[in-house]
Amino acid sequence: MLLASCGAEHAETDRQSRTLADAISYPRQADAAGFARAALATTLGRSGDFSVLEAEDLDHEGPQEPMAHLVWRIHRDARYEGWSRIEAIDACYSVEFTGDGVSSGPSRITCPDNAIAITPPPLPKRDIPSEFSPALQATLDELPATPTEADVRAALAAGMPAPPVDPETQLAGIAPEVFVQVRGSDVGVALFARIGVEEKDCMMGRRVGGVVEVWSLNWRDLGPREKPCTADAALAGY
Questions:
Q1: Are 58 and 69 in contact, with CB atoms under 8 Å apart?
Q2: What does the pLDDT read at residue 100?
Q3: Which residues does 150 contact at the CB level (< 8 Å), separation at least 6?
Q4: What is the pLDDT of residues 61-110, one digit of tens each?
Q5: Contact 14, 7 (CB under 8 A)
Q6: Rounded distance between C-alpha atoms, residue 139 and residue 206, angstroms
Q7: Average pLDDT over residues 201-229
Q8: How far apart are CA 131 and CA 140, in angstroms?
Q9: Do residues 230 and 184 make contact, with C-beta atoms less than 8 angstroms apart?
Q10: Widest Cα–Cα separation across the chain
Q11: Are the C-beta atoms of 97 and 68 separated by less than 8 Å?
Q12: Average pLDDT, rounded, for the chain
């Protein structure tokens, strides 16, 4: 009974590891620390049963070669099921990733001796918060009739909120890039943020003929369709 139970425990940690490896393969990560952060951000990763033991960047020449190596551990406390005692286990797994996903593993390995859990330092958020939309609307509404680019940039610097502090990491967000185009009394503004290796965020606003519009491009727009996040595009309304 005990051996069968331990086998079932390992079957479950095998399943969890396969699911986790697939889950953190996309969005793409820039390095091993990125994969570790992604793993620790999952439901399993946030539990007290999971830890990352190794996160190593690998030398590679092309996108199909492994770029990152991780070792993680899943712990299970001892417990009783009916009359049977299931012993505590530590199941460790080795996995390698290319830029496109898992290249090998997760393979169950002997846990490293005296392994200590690692936590990569957090990164500040780079997305464009929703509160930027009404602020951009108000800023464009209050511009003078025929502003210069310097006028628009000064108004944006004064009128747009500072990126909020993440309550979890206590890090202030990174402000998006700002692009401005002025044609007479018409103004186009694009706010662009590169969130990750491939993820992007874009908010646009324009004042044309005295009418102000503000909108955002979603991941579909910024993905394969590759709509531009530029001030010219904002001024044109797309």
A1: yes
A2: 84
A3: none
A4: 877 889 999 999 999 887 777 777 777 789 999 999 998 889 998 999 99
A5: no
A6: 10
A7: 87
A8: 15
A9: no
A10: 83
A11: yes
A12: 89
Q: Decide: 69 and 52 in contact? Cβ < 8 Å.
A: no
pLDDT band of residue 1 (cuts 50, 70, 90) is very low
Residue whose C-alpha is closest to residue 190's, from 146, 152, 143, 151: 152
DSSP string, the chain: -HHHHHHHHHHHHHHHHHHHHHHTTSS--SSHHHHHHHHHTSHHHHSTTEEEEEEEE---SSTTS--EEEEEEEEE--EEETTEEEPPEEEEEEEEEETTEEEEEEEEEPPPTT---B-PPP----S--TTHHHHHHHHHHTS-SS--HHHHHHHHHHHSPPPPBPTTT--BPPPPEEEEEEETTEEEEEEEEE-SSS-EEEEEEEEETTEEEEEEE-HHHHTTT----SHHHHHHT-
List, in order, residues 6 or more apart from 206 with CB less than 8 Å away.
140, 186, 187, 188, 189, 212, 213, 234, 235, 237
User: Residue range 187-202: average pLDDT?
Assistant: 88
Q: Which two tokens stand for residue 161?
A: 């909120």
Distance CA 200, CA 221 (A): 10
More confident site: 219 or 235 = 235
Tokens in use for 43?
């439901």
Q: How confident is the model at residue 196 (pLDDT cuts 50, 70, 90)?
A: confident
Are the C-beta atoms of 100 and 132 separated by less than 8 Å?
no
pLDDT at 5 exceeding the cut of 70:
no
Q: How far does CA 177 lie from the centroid of its chain?
A: 18
Distance CA 33, CA 45 (A): 14
